[in-house]
Design brief:
It is a single chain. By secondary structure, the protein is an alpha+beta fold. It folds into 2 domains: about 5-140, no CATH class; about 155-270, no CATH class. Helix content is about 55%, strand content about 10%. The chain has 10 helices and 6 strands. A hairpin with a 5-residue loop joins strand 5 (about 240-245) and strand 6 (about 250-255). Helix 2 (about 15-50) runs antiparallel to helix 4 (about 75-100). The longest helix has about 35 residues, at about 15-50. InterPro entries: DUF4942 (IPR031339).
């Protein structure tokens, strides 16, 4: 069984306390300046309105963009929305820098984004940052393993190649590509996310940096399909992917040692399913 240090060597530390202090102090200072700016705009609007020149919304914005600036709304409304927007962006940046996003599968990242889009975002403070990331740090192995299990559970057992007990040498995925008179193209949706998640797990198990999402296996496969319309096979260090007109893809693993590590995780979550090796 893989230990946490074997799998997650790049994600063992929290964001340093000096960075947290700088973020919290800077965030509070920025909000104070924004509040002061809104008060100044309100005072100027009072003056220009008394002169017949209208309010800041009238003279300070383009006609087709009247409601697009929170700085010109009432103080209570503006500061509430601006604070939430600012905190949302800071949480996203902290999450990215912490390395936790790389451990999450598409489902977990989507849930994190949904939580941030709500109205009850935790305020950016030293206590909230530390408690959040300490909890994430404690749960990071569970997050990673859940991603492996979600990929495993997403396989179709309608194919003999796909074992309901383990990752084999090859798996078959439905609806990964589409084919029409112009040739193949990569489908959008959760099957595409599933392939990206699978590559992410293999990179982590191999102890290598995860590629930027602009260069993950789905982007490389899409480029390969576009540039090689007469071919139906894609190859890289981890996979050999053969795709078919009916939309299925046969994914052969090139690193059986990493497949065995994924099977160790499956065995941990479903004891007794894997035959003794």
């Amino acid at each position: 069984m893989q230990t946490e240090s074997d799998v997650l060597t790049e994600h063992n530390e929290l964001i340093c306390s000096t960075s947290i202090e700088r973020i919290v102090t800077g965030r509070n200072a920025a909000l104070e300046k924004i509040e002061s700016l809104i008060r100044q705009l309100d005072d100027i609007s009072t003056l220009t309105r008394s002169l017949g020149g209208g309010m800041a919304k009238d003279w300070g914005m383009r006609e087709d963009f009247r409601s697009g600036c929170w700085l010109m709304e009432k103080m209570a409304t503006a500061m509430d929305v601006i604070t939430r927007n600012l905190d949302r962006s800071i949480w996203r940046d902290l999450m990215k820098k912490s390395g936790m996003l790389s451990l999450m599968d598409a489902q977990a990242r989507e849930q994190w984004d949904r939580n941030l889009e709500g109205d009850n975002i935790p305020a950016i403070s030293e206590a909230n940052i530390l408690s959040t990331f300490e909890q994430l740090h404690l749960n990071k192995m569970d997050v990673f393993e859940r991603g492996v299990i979600n990929v495993f559970k997403g396989l179709s057992w309608n194919y003999k190649t796909n074992s309901p007990c383990s990752f084999g040498k090859k798996v078959i995925i439905n609806n990964l590509v589409t084919c029409n008179r112009w040739g193949f193209s990569l489908s959008r949706g959760w099957r595409r996310d599933q392939l990206a998640d699978l590559e992410r797990m293999l990179f982590l198990l191999d102890g290598k940096p995860i590629p930027d999402n602009r260069g993950d296996v789905t982007i490389r496969l899409m480029d390969h399909i576009r540039d090689n319309p007469s071919k139906d096979v894609y190859e890289d260090d981890f996979f050999s992917i053969r795709y078919f007109q009916k939309g299925t893809a046969h994914i052969t693993f090139k690193r059986y040692d990493l497949t065995e590590k994924m099977n160790d995780i499956v065995a941990k979550h479903y004891p007794g399913m894997l035959a003794a090796r």
